[in-house]
Amino acid sequence: MTTATGKKTSRNDPAETIEKVEDAVLEMLHDQGVLAGINLNEVAKLAGVSRSLVYHHFGSRRGLLRSALKRELESKRVQTRTPSEPMKLGARVVHALRSLLVGGSSLKLTTLLHLDGSKSPRLMPNAETTLLQLERDQALGLVGETKDLPALHASYAASVYGYALFREIFARDLGIEVAELDERVAKQFEHLYNNA
After folding, report:
1. CA dist 32 to 2, 27, 38, Å?
2. Fewer Cβ in 10 A, N or C end of the chain?
3. What is the dihedral sign for C-alpha 48, 118, 101, 126?
4. Phi and psi at residue 148, in whole multiples of 5°?
5. 10-14, 63-67, 166-170, 171-175: least confidently modelled range
6. Three-state SS at 118
7. Which residues bind DNA (predicted)?
């Protein structure tokens, strides 16, 4: 049997079925984007399996999204560690951006989970650590004066997440290659947040 994604499959291999379904989700995200959502009937059809098999292996749409997210993070070896050394805010923001950009579809999957009402995974998994480091960096003069570090952290996270989610659209609308725009935006973030 051959699936819509062109893979030959055997009906009895659960690991192969799981991989096909996860591939289908990632393909749909790539082709249709986050806001199109993920319909389990369409996923099953694209993967060449029945919807009941999708439910059997994943339990729900959230289960499927979590499984695809875990696989994506493992395959990309994404690390969500906050740098521990003192650094200027602009460099911290650029680090966050670059970490998201190597994550493949992980941010899109996380976004879908949260739009679906999930409380995990956390959008800011290292928030407590980052706030302590921002406080330290502010005391060292590396971060501008503000009395609201949580709002500062949320504002730069929103900027980075928003750009990472829509970068292909921004690049298309501006007529700039995505990789070039990534570098230009990183420079702008660094400049903007170092001078804030």
Report:
1. 22, 8, 9
2. N
3. negative
4. -130, 70
5. 10-14
6. coil
7. 39-58
The CA angle 172-175-180, to the nearest 5 degrees, is: 90
pTM: 0.76
What does the domain layout of the chain look like in residue ranges?
A: 14-76, 89-194
Residue-wise pLDDT tens digits, 35-52: 667 888 888 999 999 989
One-letter amino acid for residue 68 of the chain: A
Domain 14-76 has CATH 1.10.10.60: yes
- Determine the 3-state secondary structure of 140 from DSSP: coil
| Phi, then psi, of 85 in degrees rounded to 5 | -75, 150
| CA separation for the pair 71, 22 (Å, rounded) | 8
Q: How far is CA 51 from the centre of its chain?
A: 26
Check: CB of residue 151 under 8 Å from CB of residue 145.
no
What are 1's two structure tokens?
Answer: 């049997």
Q: Which of the 8 DSSP states describes residue 2? A: B
